[in-house]
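Components:
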Amino acid sequence: EVQLVQSGAEVKKPGESLKISCKGSGYSFTSYWIGWVRQMPGKGLEWMGIIYPGDSDTRYSPSFQGQVTISADKSISTAYLQWSSLKASDTAMYYCARLIAVAGVLVFDYWGQGTLVTVSS
Amino acid sequence: IQLTQSPSSLSASVGDRVTITCRASQGISSYLAWYQQKPGKAPKLLIYAASTLQSGVPSRFSGSGSGTDFTLTISSLQPEDFATYYCQQLNSYSLTFGPGTKVDIK
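Structure:
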């Protein structure tokens, strides 16, 4: 069974750093892209970026380029999303999801349960 | 590429036929997916390639369209279908979501 299990909720202060994780199981972790999606409170879904754990090829949404870093450790089947200096506006739920190619189309077929990040002084 | 959805919200009754529209700012062939999200839950893939039903999704859901105009139709709304629906375009590793359509109970 394909599963993506994310790390737990975080409460941080502005200016602090943070790294959240997404562990894949039940499939070949190195063979599929993993993406990160932000959902701010009461708002819609925003694609942040994707990584191919097999070779760490990473693509960012222009809106998030330079704001976050996406990485992966294929030895433990885990992808990461990190911030060097959090802002209150980073408060959101963050989802990881597996990206697959089906009939020539890219889709997010399996999703993690989400990690709630709260940034407040 | 920008996506717009209409309506932004709608109220409907169980058994109603519901149609949601997604429009792309430029042609995206059939590179469009639809997701359903319930409160407090992760999104769920419903349809990909504009009209292909994901495995396990009830047949009352259907999708159509190509180019710039797409629709998601629920033929007979069920209680478990009250949720927010998002379209997403999938083009060369640039993946944009629409703003969402909330379907609630009339």
